[in-house]
Every structure is written in C-alpha cells, then in structure tokens.
Amino acid sequence: VGLMEIENDPDGSNSALDDLVDALNTAAGAGTYAYVQTGATGTDEIKVAIIYKPGVVTPVGAPQVLDTAAFTDPNGLGSQKNRPAVAQTFQVSDASNPDFGAAFTVVVVHLKSKGSGCGAGDDDTTTGQGNCNGTRTGGATALVNWLATDPTNTAANLGAVDTDYLIIGDFNAYYLEDPMQVFYTNGYSNLVAQNSYSYVFDGEWGSLDHAVASSSLATQVTGAQDYHINSDESSLLDYNDTVQDTGEASWMAKPATNPLYNADEFRSSDHDPVVIGLDLDAPAPTPTPTATANPGNGNGGGNGNGKSYTIGECIVLTISSSEPFVSYGQTWEWVITITNTCDDGISGVLVLNFPGLFVVNIITDNNGAVQVVYTTPTMRYGRMVLPMQSDVAQVAVNLGAGESRTVRIATTLPQDYQGTSVTATANFSGTSGGASSDVSASATALIVSELPATGETPIWRDVVLAIIGLGI
Fold first, then answer.
1. With contact defined as beta carbons under 8 Å apart, do 459 and 16 qualify?
2. Quick check: pTM over 0.90?
C-alpha cells in the first residue's frame, strides 16, 4: 500500500506511520501489517510511505530513496519541489500463494502540485498543464533514469536484474500531460483507463493519481481501478469540516458532533485510491540434471523399472522462521525439513546459512553429523551449544525413499545487526540413484524495534493511494 502525506518524522514507536500500523493491526490482528522503514525523507512536513502484509510479501534488500536535486528540484530553484520517492522490492513469501517466490518493486511518488508556482518559465499558462509542469516533467525523467540503474540491487538480492516496477502515487498530472508522457515513451503503461478520475477540482473530474507499470510487469496485471470512495463525495463529509463545532478544540478536530460525519471509508481523503491486481510470474526454476534409469539395474535415477526423474522434483526442502517479527537480542528458531519422495535413497550435505546471526544451538532428529564454521563437531542426537561467531551449519543427510528429517536451529539477532529483515537459506546438494542436484529454500523474519502494539489510534487523517493485491 502506497501512502501520501504521512507526517515526515523518524521511524519508531512515536511516529505517525507506527501509529497507523498499530491501528490497522488492532483492527486486523497483530502482525497483519508492517511498514517500510525509511526514516524522515526530504525537507517537507510530509512524505510518502509504504505498508505491507508480512504474511504475504517480504522486503528484499533495503528501501531506496530518490532525493537527488535532479528529482526533487530539476530546474534548480533552490528548494525541494517533488517529494522524495521511495522504492522497495518485495517477494511473495506466502507458500500458499500461487505467486510464491515472485518479486516486484513498488515505487511511491508525490510530484509537485499545480497549486503554487515554481517561478518564471515553469508555470504553464499556454497548454493548461498548470504551475510547475517543468518540475514534474523533470522529476519523471529523473525517476525513469534512476530505475534503469536497478536502485534496489535486485541483481544481487534476487540473482538477476528484475525490472518489474509498479509506480504509484499522486503525480499531480493528468493522463496525457507531459510528465505522464515521459513514462509512456520509456515503455511504461498507465494501468487505469484514460477517462478515469480520482479527484474533483472546481466541479471538474480527472486523474491526478496513477498506477504505472514497466513493460515486464504490465503483462502480469489483472486489473486496475479507481475506488471512488472520496472524489464523488461532498467536501462537507471530510474528516475535517472547516467549522469549529461545540466541544471541539479546533476546526481541524475530528467532527464527532457533525451529523454528516460517519466513521466509514467515504471521504477519508479528497483523492480516490487506485486498486491494482497482480498475478505475478513465478521465478524460473534452476535447471537440474535429469538421470535416466537403465532398466533393471536401479542405478540411473529410477526404481529399476526404467523410470526417470529429476532429483529437484522429488526432494522437498522447506525452511521457516518460528517468529515472523524479531527484535535485537532475541533468540528464535528456524525449522528446516527435507523429505525424500524419490524412488531411491538420497545422500548429501545440507548447508544452512544465517548471515549476520549467531547460531546458538542445533537440534536434529538423530540423523547425521553437524559441521559448523570454525569447528567440526559431530552430533548424532540431542543438543549441542556451538560457537557464537558461527552463522553457517552443515548437516550430513542420508534418507531412504519416503523418509523425512527435520533440523531446528536457534539463532540470536545481534544488537549491531544492519538491516530491516533477516533471511536464512538452506541448500541441499546430493545424489540419488546416480543423479545429482541442488535444491534451495529460504525464509525471512522482519526486524522491528518493538513488537506491534495494541491500542486504538485514529487513522482517518492518512491518505491511501494504492492497494496492491497479489493474486489472492
């Protein structure tokens, strides 16, 4: 979900964004929502932000903020005009979701409004595009150029450059104006219809709010629509009614005594949100060798009856975190299970990586040796406390057909860990029936300074500009 006009304060328990997420979690259940932590951005009193459901998607890498002068002040006017944009790559982490493993990048923007001037040469009085058209157009150009550099480093974080970009927000430009043309000429598509509207000004309807997709993502969009909960409604229904009623501290107060006010979604903002549906392409599987059996000898990747198979298709490897949210100094478990559905037995090594974490202990189910960086202990059963500097473990695996083994590894998050999430990976490299293959899995836990709190916090001041559905 992309948000506009959030109070521009640092992240933390006293921030407006934290209050919003707390209120959502009070209504929807603890841990349902989380927010991307960017801290204060730019020089304005408000900023853009992103919230998401950690049960569905996981941030990949750190968020990136575009706050260069080329974007915020492209005409060199000496002050910020376009508010800094925020980009975050997400990967679908809900194994039950048909888009599991797919990734895309959300970019939230809020370009300069038409309401106030940007100076001589930038205030359009001839084509009807309004004040600061050049500033918005220059910002759009800088944004497109920035995205072409892979700012969220998907090449490293996903193993290949991912160009699936979804740009959402208040562009303060109508469908065919110059800033939007920048996106179109660079291969981006506007997902909402040309005759749609999200805002009403002086009785005239039009779209200032857009959802723009890169060419690679556009084919994965199932639909996009303005949700007319605000623009069709009278301004008399605003959360602030411009009248100081009896008992209100100011006219900006929530108009509880106004008979026109109702605690629902209507006229929660002056802009309509844009709803986008995505059915993301699953990542291409890593090619694995295929072994063909020699009939009768059982040595070629089959059961001796001439059956052939790919090892990666019959070894099931999963890893999960016992805690979706973790905090500094906390110890929790990762659960790794490997199941052999091959016709023959399998043998190999399971390598478990926990970058930046401390491995505290490992518990297996009486199955094999454990090797940890800096030591080479052997464990046949029970529990062993391992060196605190270790963040890698190796487990020897030997499974008969149909057998399954589970490894539980406890890790601690160091106080000086850098990042907003922690990701653990499991990789099995082994053989079965004469064929070899690698199988990998990963899981992520989100780092929070404190676990989601409870307690009612009003959310009616926040403007929702995009709700993203992931084929669910």
1. no
2. no
